[in-house]
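Final report, Chapter 2: Outcomes

The project's central promise was a pipeline that accepts a single protein chain and returns its three-dimensional structure in a standardized token representation, suitable for archiving and comparison. That pipeline is now operational. To close this chapter, we reproduce one record exactly as it appears in the project archive, with the input sequence first and the structure output second.
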Amino acid sequence: IRDRQQLEVLKLKQAQLTKLTTEKTQLLAQHQWGAQVPAILTDDQVEQLQEASDQQQRLATEQQVLLSKTEGLQTQVATQEQLVNQLEATTVRSTTQNQTIFWGVGGILLLTIFLPGVFKVGAIVGLLVLGYGWYQRQQVQQQLTQGVEQKAQWQQALAQLDALKDEQQTQAAALTASQAQLQASQQQTTAILTEAGYATETSVSVVLNQQNDLKRVAQLTTEIKQQTVAVATLQNQLTPYYQQWQFAQEWVGALQGSDA
């Protein structure tokens, strides 16, 4: 009776061992783990990876915003530079034209003082022509803007351009700093993964999700070893029973043979 009970226990242990082995094999195949299974991360490593992952996501979002701002500022700077150049050209041209006419009129007035009476008439006519020309130029300039107003607009546009360039430099510096932080965080992640035996291209989220299965594989490995020892022990204990059973079969067979 005792031997039969042990035999039933052995069958149960063997079934459990088969079940445990099958589950472990399925987990290894699911994650494509070979003979070298990655190590289970410590609580500190899990915390570091989680913090690094959160930081990398935040930095990636931050860089998208900064990059968008930088591109927008680049477009604004180009547009503002074009406006400044246009205003600068208009302001310089207006100032130069007014100065030329002013000195021309002034020169003729001085000449009329020293010229004889006959020539004064010609000088006055010339003066009138210049005056009329100056009047026409003034009419054209007034249709656009006054010289002083143009200069003010140019100075204002130039100040806005300087402010945009300062902002552009600030955003570019922030983007560079964010990229440096992201690189340092990625290097830290790579170091932890390499130390634990994971492929460096494996994402942190995948690694963290694998921890429960890794713990289960470790538990299964321990239970398989225990069940293997238990099965071997029972088999050793049942060896006399197997021998008696084999002897009985042989004896019965011999008797059947002699009867024949």
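Archive annotation: The CA atoms of residues 71 and 168 lie 9 Å apart.
This record, like all others produced under the grant, will remain available to the consortium after the project formally closes.
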